[in-house]
Amino acid sequence: MSLLNGPIDLGYHLVLSLAHVLTPLTGGLATAAAIVLFTMGVRLLLMPLSFYGMRGQARMAGLQPRVEELRRRYARQPEKLQAELGTLYAQEAGGMMAGCLPLLLQLPFFSIMYRLFLYGKVAGHANALLSRDLFGTPLGSHLLSAASLTVGHVLVFAGLLALLILVATLSVRLVRSSAPAGPQLPGAMGALTRLLPYTTVIIAAFVPLAAGLYLLTTTTWTVAERALLRRRAVAPATGGGVVSPAGSAR
What we know:
The chain is mainly alpha-helical. It has one domain. The C terminus is likely disordered.
């Protein structure tokens, strides 16, 4: 934990300060609102990389014509087809990595939020955040690790998980509707693309409620970003064309 001591202390004071400022407006929801603002600040900081990642995903979607060509060429040679597809996706691994970059860069921030509600002492003092709650449910509580949870606590977690499922479903539908017509990613790769957004639901069942709020905020932000990018992609350009996801007019 030594490497994270400084960032954890900074995050602790930042969340407490935000909660103090928000208290007149949000009352008992101030700390939860501070977590949401903290997460939004992280996403604003990473926004340039997020758009870079979305361009990488657009590059992967642009591979569909080449995939179709390979399927036609090797329709009777399934082993050869799989080999060629593997080579193609290996060549475009940079696009896949670009799509994962915003997620990877968020891991340190998520880890900080997780640890802020894990330890009894932070910055050399008793952790004041552990006494904060959301609708009566402690922000440091876990759904699957506390036998003393009340019905009210379970309902709060159930609401959080339901919202995460909703956001994940919207994310999958948005990706599908944005993809060009034609064959989808093959085998395990396609299944992973469809299932990956739902992993946040599993994670939220094991981490503190505060970390679950972080997940809900950041995944909602991602869906909103993608929807905005899609609108820009289909908006008429000044020259009468259509702007592609990569930003070029066609």
